[in-house]
Specification:
By secondary structure, this protein is of the alpha+beta class. 37% of the residues lie in helices and 19% in strands.
């Protein structure tokens, strides 16, 4: 090589300068990404040397003691990343570091044919990310020598990311690559052991090669930072339960042991690994924060990329924990956004299947572990009925609800349990939604069902109103609300007599626009009245939920069903004073609303009515005693 060729300054390829500015200023959202990229490149180079050494005699023995060294100097403001991998010659440096849109590793993989591709599966496809160095550095120096070339064929590449770079031939005894970053002042806070160890463990903890951290002037304190054993990449036969539990603890920082886990390897043209855990407890904000899916971490070739996106883990499984690792997942150029592809869909389907397998197994076993899971994650799993049409019935089979069935003894029951008890002649799964279990258990809507021995499921989670709006049948059985429309329990019921109809009309007239319709019915045996929603109308619970969420709710008028045989209704029928009758009618409507957990438009007016009635009753009772009676007069009055 001539003297003039040894040192030269070159411009980046056309428009590369603009692209470089984009990468530095906009492409990466987190400055720490640069270290992940440099370590990944070093890992790729080491893998590449190991692979080429299988067929290249000149490389025999050079693939031993591979590792990645990081040396930082806080005083000088520098960070040095070194590897003893394959290295690059001058032409490769120009090709790979002079063109942003090219990756040396990717080109290497594309050059392989036949079985070599399978053998090279451990070699990553990083390379472009080298330019993320300029996020933190105002000057980057690369010194490298390809492992199968002599020491005088070393190359130095230097750039300030300003549109040009300098190339220089150098003597370099060690093969591999050394990258020196001179950090800008605002990023020198990264140059301390705690920061660097934290970044390494977060992104690169499972790189297959040891990563050693060295502080300048303290070489004796060099130590390996990462755990190069990626548990999910190991054969299941090599692992004990304690291995899985320890990894779960390190992955999640959860002091509780996982309830169960699934370890799955997929081989073939598309290779990936899954390690999924069912946790034993939920973070406090999991129900509220539906977009949080930090539990399943996405890796490419054991390099952490992101917390799994919705394309991989659906919202209703956001409680799952674990790892997805693949060599082939398509990312955007910054590898911060997962792009859609058949492989992504396949991995998502596998995550869903394996997660539901775990939950089904736990449900079948029952007992304390299942109860813990359902209490922590049941309301979240219910979202799957709404969001995942393909898995709707499978998810529905896992749902559990409180029930009026006397043998349930407070235990939740599934839809299959209900169907089994109803027998072949049954065609309806009856349910009641309410704000709480106590409100549901005391609802007047249950009276007719208790009288006939018909089981009713009690749905008290906030999600349940949405759930039943998307699940109108299960295994051919209709789901129906006991509080909607006309009640048909399949038995003979007497038509309301004229007196009952007349009383209902009189109440309707007294209530006016406060009520939609008033009618006598067969729902009630003990209560005087109840609120009934239209067949396709909005329940009181749904209206309440929407208001609490800040939504506009259309003004609706509740329908009132009365029990004409109740003593209160009989007494009202005898009241001649229309003002008094109107007050009693309003009180009847308010009581029915309260019994269903509804909200009164004017609570103060309700209290006033009750107080007035109490005063009148007590006054009448007192007058009876003043008359010298023995109590019989007061009772009759």
């Amino acid at each position: 090589m001539s003297e003039t060729a040894k040192v030269e300054t070159r411009q980046f390829d056309t428009e590369v300068h603009q692209l470089l500015k984009l990468m530095i200023n906009a492409l990466y959202s987190n400055r720490e990404i640069f270290l992940r990229e440099l370590i990944s490149n070093a890992s790729d180079a080491s893998d590449k040397l190991r692979f080429e050494a299988l067929t290249n005699e000149a490389l025999k023995g050079l693939d031993q003691d591979l590792g990645i060294d990081l040396q930082f100097d806080a005083e000088k403001g520098s960070l040095v990343v070194s590897d003893r991998g394959i290295g690059m010659n001058r032409d490769e440096v120009v090709s790979n570091l002079g063109t942003i849109a090219r990756s040396g590793t990717r080109q290497f993989l594309e050059s392989l044919t036949g079985d070599q591709k399978k053998d090279a599966s451990l070699i990553g496809q990083f390379g472009v990310g080298f330019y993320s160095s300029f996020i933190v550095a105002d000057r980057v120096t690369v010194e490298t020598r390809r492992a199968d070339e002599p020491a005088d064929q070393g190359v130095r590449w230097v750039s300030a990311g300003d549109g040009e770079y300098r190339l220089e031939s150098i003597e370099r005894e060690q093969h591999g690559t050394t990258i020196t970053l001179e950090l800008r002042d605002e990023h020198k806070d990264l140059l301390n052991r705690w920061q660097l160890e934290r970044i390494i463990r977060h992104y690169s903890n499972h790189i297959a090669f040891p990563i050693r951290l060295i502080e300048a002037g303290k070489d004796e304190e060099s130590n390996t930072v990462n755990d190069s054993q990626a548990l999910w990449a190991r054969p299941k036969s090599d692992l004990e339960d304690s291995d899985y539990e320890e990894f779960y603890s390190s992955l999640t920082a959860d002091p509780e042991k996982p309830l169960s886990w699934a370890h799955h390897h997929v081989e073939g043209s598309q290779r990936y690994s899954l390690l999924l855990y069912l946790p034993g407890q939920a973070p406090f904000d999991m129900l509220i924060n539906r977009d949080e899916r930090e539990g399943v971490k996405l890796y490419i070739q054991r390099v952490f990329i992101m917390d799994a996106a919705e394309q991989v883990v659906p919202r209703y499984l956001r409680f799952m924990r674990g790892v997805v690792d693949s060599a082939d997942l398509p990312l955007n150029i910054s590898r911060e956004i997962l792009q859609d592809s058949p492989l992504v869909k396949k991995i998502r389907a596998t995550v869903v299947k394996r997660s539901l397998d775990l939950i089904e197994k736990l449900a079948k076993e029952g007992g304390e572990r299942w109860n813990r899971f359902w209490k922590a994650f049941g309301p979240i799993l219910k979202e799957g009925v709404i969001e995942d049409f393909e898995q709707r019935e499978r998810i529905a089979s896992l749902l559990r609800f409180a029930s009026t069935h006397e043998d349930s003894e407070g235990e939740s029951v599934g839809l299959d349990d209900y169907i089994e008890r109803m027998g072949e002649e049954g065609d309806t799964i009856w349910y009641l939604t309410a704000d709480s279990l106590k409100v549901a258990q005391n609802s007047p809507h249950l009276e007719a069902f208790r009288k006939r021995g018909i089981e009713v499921l009690l749905l008290t989670d906030r999600i349940d109103e949405w759930l039943v709006s998307h699940l109108d049948e299960y295994k051919g059985k209709q789901l129906k609300s006991v509080a909607r429309g006309k009640l048909d329990l399949g038995d003979e019921t007497d038509e309301p007599d004229e007196a009952s109809k007349e009383l209902a009309g009189r109440i309707k007239q007294a209530l006016g626009e406060a009520v939609g319709n008033v009618q006598p019915g067969t729902r009630l045996t003990e209560s005087p009245g109840c609120i009934v929603a239209e067949e396709a109308g909005m329940t009181l619970q749904m209206q309440k939920m929407l208001r609490q969420a800040g939504q506009d709710v259309p003004e609706t008028k509740p329908d009132l069903e009365i029990n004409a045989g109740h003593p209160l209704l009989k007494a009202m029928a005898a009241v001649k004073d229309e003002k008094r009758f109107g007050e009693l009618s309003r009180l009847l409507l308010d009581q029915a609303l309260l019994a269903e957990g509804g909200e009164l438009a004017d609570p103060a007016a309700y209290v006033r009515r009750v107080n007035e009635l109490l005063v009148e009753a007590l006054t009448a009772a007192g007058n009876g005693h003043e008359d010298g009676g023995d109590g019989q007069h007061a009772a009759s009055s």
